[in-house]
């Protein structure tokens, strides 16, 4: 049986010096789970950060081997890891099995990437001493590790966006040491994965400061972000918490970047011909997307926009019917469940908003094109808001009201080309991913994926938190001008 000690993992050492502890309960039964967890002290956070700052340059081959070894170690944890994650989150074992596969898969994707060295983006512009009126210098430009990174585990993905998730994998691939603040909703799962990382580092005889993991709440997170050794922050969660981290990082004597993915309402646009030909299929498909994972995805389709028609009416009926039979799920935490309830109450109280369906498994609200701005606030959970337009002009105006979203989807068929093209342009200015004839839930881990959009969906729309391009967050460019041979010969590009 896997042992959970509740320790903070401080550069390969156990951290249990705190006088503050907490425990967690089985999300379904309420039974207290094994493990008493120590909240990290300021000294422990400092020790983790200073150990990270002392890590030198790690060869690409060693980093690739580390990522592969971490994946192997996570798989070796077997069913006990999944069972602990299920107990702490109530997520089904089948979902967690898939998430473990995604976690290990993305670790291996980053391993394969850094073998190629393409992430270094090495560029050489040779000298031209004969150029007039001034000689041209020799320039070599490439990327280097940003430095120690603080990663905040997400509540809704205890594996893929947590201790060994995409932020950690991409940072380690870049050669940037990582200090993870484990999410307090699944600390046992976090410790098991954290030990898999620590064991991999020890097995390969790499610097222990490459990885640490600390437990705690907002105060520990604040200490971590403000520590002078930290050079960047990775975060997935609420807009409120993400903005707080951004403000903390900006207020430092030396500001640092925060790469925060903060969710969105992910609008879905249903065009006339699509509704005429497959309204019922769209309705049932949307219901499945809305209720997937009890609606606890940052890509949950929270807003649907369409023009009144017979097809729109059939779509609404199919959606409501499908949600009426959706099973009620258990949300990740009591806090998330309370926020969802409050969000639904606030939405239903807005002028012009009607409750179309209020089922245990999912909720549907409806409003018109002149809806109040508050209707576009994210409600994290299994619900969606239908915006009913009278014309294409109204639908166009609604599209312009969105600011920053992770995704937008367009369902179209032949006959909808003109509006589809117009919408695609409008939405591409406001989102990170435009989806055609599909739903936003389900994010492919791919070199071509963009998971991030304009603020407030994320803190910097130029970067992604999913896929191998995510490594760019943890790298910085350096140019060498007229470098002597003994320097140039050692550049890894």
Overall shape? globular
Number of strands: 19
* pLDDT < 50 stretches: none
Structural class: alpha/beta
Number of helices: 14
Strand content: 15-25%
- Gyration radius over CA: 24 Å
- Helical content band: 25-40%
Tell me the major beta sheet: 7 strands, mixed
Write out key terms for the chains shown:
493 residues; alpha/beta; seven-stranded mixed sheet; five-stranded parallel sheet; 19 strands
Describe this structure in words.
The chain is of the alpha/beta class and 493 residues long. The protein is built from 14 helices and 19 strands. The strands form 5 sheets. A 7-stranded mixed β-sheet has the order 14-15-16-13-12-17-18, with helices on both faces. Strands 9-8-7-10-11 form a 5-stranded parallel β-sheet, sandwiched between helices. The protein has a 3-stranded antiparallel β-sheet with strand order 5-6-19, with no helix packed on it. Strand 12 (268-270), helix 9 (272-291) and strand 13 form a beta-alpha-beta unit. Helix 3 runs antiparallel to helix 6. It is globular. It starts with 7 loop residues before the first strand and ends in a 5-residue tail after the last helix. The model has no long low-confidence stretch (mean pLDDT 96).
């Amino acid at each position: 049986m896997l042992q959970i000690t509740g320790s903070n993992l401080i550069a390969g050492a156990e951290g249990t010096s705190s006088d503050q502890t907490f425990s967690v309960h089985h999300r379904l039964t309420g039974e207290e789970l094994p493990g008493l967890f120590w909240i990290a002290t300021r000294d422990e956070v400092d020790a983790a950060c200073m150990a990270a700052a002392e890590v030198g340059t790690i060869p690409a081959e060693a980093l690739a081997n580390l990522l592969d070894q971490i994946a192997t170690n996570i798989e070796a944890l077997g069913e006990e890891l999944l069972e602990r994650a299920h107990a702490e989150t109530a997520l089904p074992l089948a979902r967690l099995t898939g998430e473990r596969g995604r976690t290990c898969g993305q670790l291996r994707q980053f391993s394969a990437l850094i073998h190629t060295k393409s992430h270094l983006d090495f560029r050489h512009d040779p000298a031209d001493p004969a150029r007039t009126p001034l000689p041209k210098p020799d320039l070599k430009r490439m990327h280097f590790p940003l430095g120690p990174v603080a990663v905040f585990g997400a509540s809704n993905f205890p594996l893929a966006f947590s201790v060994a998730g995409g932020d950690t994998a991409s940072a380690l691939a870049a050669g940037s040491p990582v200090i993870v603040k484990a999410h307090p909703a699944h600390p046992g799962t976090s410790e098991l994965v954290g030990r898999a990382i620590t064991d991999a580092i020890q097995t390969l005889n790499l610097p222990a400061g490459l990885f640490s993991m600390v437990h705690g709440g907002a105060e520990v997170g604040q200490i971590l972000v403000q520590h002078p050794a930290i050079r960047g922050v990775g975060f997935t969660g609420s807009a409120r918490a993400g903005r707080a981290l951004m403000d903390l990082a900006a207020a430092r004597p030396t500001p640092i970047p925060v790469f925060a993915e903060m969710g969105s309402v992910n609008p879905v646009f249903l065009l006339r011909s699509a509704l005429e030909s497959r309204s019922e299929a769209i309705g049932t498909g949307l219901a499945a997307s809305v209720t997937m994972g009890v609606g606890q995805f940052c890509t949950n389709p929270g807003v649907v926009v369409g023009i009144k028609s017979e097809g729109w009416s059939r779509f609404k009926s199919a959606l409501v019917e499908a949600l009426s039979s959706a099973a009620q799920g258990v949300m990740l935490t009591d806090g998330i469940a309370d926020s969802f309830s409050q969000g639904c109450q606030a939405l239903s109280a807005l002028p012009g908003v009607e409750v179309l369906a209020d089922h245990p498994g999912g909720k549907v609200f409806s409003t018109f094109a002149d809806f109040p701005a508050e209707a576009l606030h994210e409600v994290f959970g299994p619900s969606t808001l239908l915006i009913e337009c009278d014309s294409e002009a109204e639908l166009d105006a609604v599209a312009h009201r969105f600011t920053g979203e992770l995704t937008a989807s367009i369902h179209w068929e032949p006959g909808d080309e003109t509006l589809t093209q117009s919408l695609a342009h409008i939405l591409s200015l406001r989102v990170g991913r435009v989806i055609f004839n599909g739903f936003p839930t389900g994010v492919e881990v791919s070199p071509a994926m963009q998971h991030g959009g304009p603020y407030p969906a994320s803190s910097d729309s130029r970067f992604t938190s999913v896929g191998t391009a995510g490594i760019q967050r943890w790298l910085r460019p350096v140019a060498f001008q007229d470098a002597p041979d003994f320097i140039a010969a050692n550049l890894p590009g």
